[in-house]
Amino acid sequence: MSWRGWLTLALSVAAVLAGLAIWNENNHLKTRGPAEYRPDYVLNDFTMVSLNQQGTEALTVSAPQLRRNPDTQAMDLDTPTFLFPDRNNRRWRATAKTAWVSAKGEQVKLRGDAVVDSPVGDANQGRIASPTLDVFTEKGKERATSQDAVVITKPGTIIKGRGLDADFNQDRVVLHNEVRIQYAPQAAR
Amino acid sequence: KTSDRKQPTNIEADQGQMSTKDDTPSILDGNVSVVQGTMTAKGAHGTVWSRKGKAYRMLMTGSPVVLTEILDDGSPMKATAANVDYNLDTDIAVFTGNVVITQPKGTLNSEKVTYNMKTGTVNSGGGPGQRVHMVLQPKSGA
């Protein structure tokens, strides 16, 4: 085989090896769970206000610990307490065992006993509880979704279902499956 | 039955759009069932109004809606209709569309029936040209 043949063979092998290395690294990146990366910074016992692109508050969060993923700039938090302002500047409060916050703070994934409470003093004081809740903070389109079982409570009413889409501004909640509602009795006659 | 209003109202459906605000209707779709004490209503679609956690009006449509209830005098009542608009505060139910009301004392067919679920009194009439058909059972031994 001429030297050109050997050169072509060598280059082909090198290309295959390079491809394998890249494929392996990608896989490694994907399987990196929240806790498996080495954070580029860690905050302890903090309160943080995250601003959106308009420069207004997207969310405020307090937690014992926050770790930032250097690759995605997303953040992982333990037992966080979030405050989400809606269009009327009322604060919805959310807690969970853990949370993941996207780099720009426009999406929050609450995991483990996730709870969202409507603003304090709101005429329609209510609570949404589910094993998982995803909160989207885009200004004017603040909402929460879940694929799990959900329980919504407000004075006198219990609403259960599976698969949620809640619009914070319209105070409107859609449940996609297995809806069960219980209203309190009318006044005793 | 009057005592039904002292029971919670339980509603089931496949899907639902609810509001946390008072007086804003919750819209329910698919196998809608409403139970309050002895009153049971089943239909395809339901709209429920509530205030301070208490349901006060229920509008159901179906093909047909089937509503059953035990009246204060203990007699059973069954109604089928295309639409039922039930005011849970006044106990007045308005049935419209191919209405059939069945009770031990007889059967009533009409296009529209306004029924007082507390007293069992009926105000029926479909409108011009629509007839009411009523069959009263003879008193036993008469």
TrEMBL record, chain A:
Keywords: Cell inner membrane, Cell membrane, Membrane, Transmembrane, Transmembrane helix. The keyword Zinc does not apply. Gene3D superfamilies: Lipopolysaccharide (LPS) transport protein A like domain. GO terms for cellular component: outer membrane-bounded periplasmic space; plasma membrane. InterPro entries: LipoPS_assembly_LptC-rel, LPS_export_LptC, LptC. GO terms for molecular function: glycolipid transfer activity; lipopolysaccharide transmembrane transporter activity. This is Lipopolysaccharide-assembly, LptC-related. It comes from Solilutibacter silvestris.
